[in-house]
Amino acid sequence: MTLALNVQNRNYLLDPKVMYTLGRGEGVDILVKHAMVSRRHCRFFFQDGHWILEDLGSAHGTFLSGVKIKETEISVCNRINNSYIH
Description:
Blueprint: E1 3-7, E2 10-14, E3 20-23, E4 30-31, E5 42-47, E6 50-55, E7 62-64, E8 67-69, E9 71-74, E10 79-80, E11 83-85
Parallel strand pairs: 3-4
Antiparallel strand pairs: 1-2, 1-11, 3-5, 5-6, 6-9, 7-8, 10-11
């Protein structure tokens, strides 16, 4: 199940066979240029039929639909900080 992600007006299609890291540092899969985003902020991975969002110890936290999370299952049309999952 591919995940469509829109981050800072850029569209990404995430392959369930790949783990993706989001952050503002070098070497991340999804680059976000914002002071509130850590170098390695969070990651997306597919496990047991579900997409998972995991905070990587970010300084300001990762929020899903307005709720701060450590690790959670994500679903269609959740909001992550200022980004959307479709």
